[in-house]
Amino acid sequence: MKKIRPKNSTQELLVRKIIDSLGLKYTIHDSTLPGCPDIVFRMQKKVIFVNGCFWHGHNNCRKARLPQTNSSFWKKKIQANVKRDARIARRLNRLGWHYKVIWQCRIRGSKTVGFSKDLLRFVQS
Length: 125
Ligand SMILES: [Zn+2]
Description:
This protein is an alpha+beta fold. The protein has three helices and four strands; from the N terminus they run αβββαβα.
């Protein structure tokens, strides 16, 4: 299967910068875990996926709109990705891991205050 998760995307780097500023320790791209999560908090058994809205079929998102041409092809493709993501989430849960998805469209510019709180709450709860 073609890789649908480009590593070190701009959004991912921004999320990592925020986590760095919070002083949290993490590793990245852990291929020993289902789905090779982007950001891994081993101690807390928590992972974060930074998902592109289009490829991961973000619900009701402007960035996830399918192209007009070949729309059934894209629909099938994106639906397969969504199913795959759900499977990965179930596998992680079974292994006792908590996961969070951060959507690409939520990451814009420097308005990250609420975002930091959100991240802290997820990692430390
Ligand atoms: Zn989105």
